[in-house]
């Protein structure tokens, strides 16, 4: 049976004693799901997975999303896998920081919930550290359930009836990537701005979570700048130290998180010195985050 070791109570746990290269038993899978309902982030150390093994494990949670970047030249063929790396698929060398891919990936360094810019946002993400730098490049997580519960009840009641607009072009623009110039027409068509509720309630646990992040840029029905300031204040609230955890990667860690119970961001590293090769599978949402 998997052993659950709590790292940060009700938020992060480490799961030992499972081999995700093989199809684990239903009982083991249930034990992982149980741990995942309490902890929004699970760390599985020492999982040296192939892409197919990672996909097979991820698919037990539900259908996978396709990567928005699947039309580009990448290090992987499978459209269900996201390629987060500084390795150039054409040469095998390090990508230049000014390259389109590196400039795009920089957006991951802002606090976000994966694909909140899609009409039906992602449910779970699984990130596999295939090659990790010896320093930097941590991934930080913030507990948006605890952050929600720390808001006063008037603010909670107000947020429950609000929606915010989310857009990939917006968040990329914050790090200097001009989507109007660089997005392919397929990408533009796939990700127009969408409205999302500002609170997500998990139907299984009943717990509520704040739903914001770097893709959100406006609150519907509010002055654009006032709404944006409010969104930024909520992200700041949710990412205070008492709500966060920094994961320092070991090679072959698999880290899985609930995008509707957490925010995350990548931290910088020396991209011109160290290779970083990460593969992500993303379990699609089954319904709109709208209650
Ligand atoms: C992601 C992501 C951050 C990182 O995989 O969705 O945002 O540290 N990753 O690579
Ligand atoms: Mn992400």
Q: What's this model, at a glance?
A:
With 291 residues, the chain is an alpha+beta fold. The protein has 9 helices and 15 strands.
List keywords for this structure.
single chain, 291 residues, alpha+beta, Double-stranded beta-helix, seven-stranded mixed β-sheet, three-stranded antiparallel β-sheet, 9 helices, binds N-oxalylglycine, binds manganese (II) ion
Provide structural commentary.
With 291 residues, this protein is of the alpha+beta class. It has a single domain, classed as Double-stranded beta-helix, CATH 3.60.130.10. Helices cover 25% and strands 25% of the residues. The chain has 9 helices and 15 strands. It has helices at residues 26-38, 51-59, 100-105, 144-149, 153-160, 168-174, 179-182, 185-190, 224-238; strands at 3-8, 12-16, 41-44, 81-85, 124-131, 139-143, 163-166, 194-197, 199-201, 208-210, 216-219, 244-247, 254-258, 262-266, 277-283. Strands 1-2-3-13-5-15-4 form a 7-stranded mixed β-sheet, with helices on one face. β1 and β2 form a beta hairpin. The protein is globular and about 50 Å long. The protein binds N-oxalylglycine and manganese (II) ion. Manganese (II) ion binds next to loops.
């Amino acid at each position: 049976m998997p052993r659950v070791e709590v790292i940060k109570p009700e938020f992060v746990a480490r799961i030992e004693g499972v081999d995700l290269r093989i199809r684990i038993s239903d009982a083991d899978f249930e034990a992982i799901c149980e741990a995942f309902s309490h902890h929004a982030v699970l760390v599985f150390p020492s999982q040296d997975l192939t892409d197919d093994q990672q996909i097979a494990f991820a698919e037990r949670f539900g259908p996978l999303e396709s990567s928005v970047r699947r039309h580009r030249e990448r290090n992987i063929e499978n459209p269900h896998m996201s390629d987060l790396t500084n390795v150039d698929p054409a040469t095998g060398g390090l990508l230049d920081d000014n390259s389109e891919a590196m400039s795009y990936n920089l957006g991951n360094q802002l606090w976000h919930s994966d694909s909140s810019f899609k009409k039906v946002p992602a449910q779970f993400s699984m990130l596999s550290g295939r090659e990790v730098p010896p320093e930097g490049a941590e991934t930080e997580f913030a507990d948006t359930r605890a952050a929600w519960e720390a808001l006063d009840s008037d603010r909670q009641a107000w947020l429950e009836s609000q929606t915010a607009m989310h857009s990939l072009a917006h968040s990329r623009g914050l790090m200097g990537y001009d989507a109007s110039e660089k997005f392919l027409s397929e990408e533009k068509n796939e990700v127009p701005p969408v409205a999302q509720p500002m609170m997500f309630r998990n139907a299984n646990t009943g717990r509520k979570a704040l739903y914001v992040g770097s893709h959100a840029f406006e609150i519907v029905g509010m002055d654009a700048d006032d709404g944006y300031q409010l969104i930024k204040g909520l992200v700041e609230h949710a990412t205070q130290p008492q709500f966060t955890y920094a994961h320092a990667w070991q090679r072959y860690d698999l880290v899985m998180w609930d995008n509707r119970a957490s925010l995350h961001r990548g931290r910088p590293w020396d991209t011109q010195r160290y290779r970083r090769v990460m593969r992500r599978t993303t379990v699609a949402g089954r319904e709109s985050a709208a209650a």
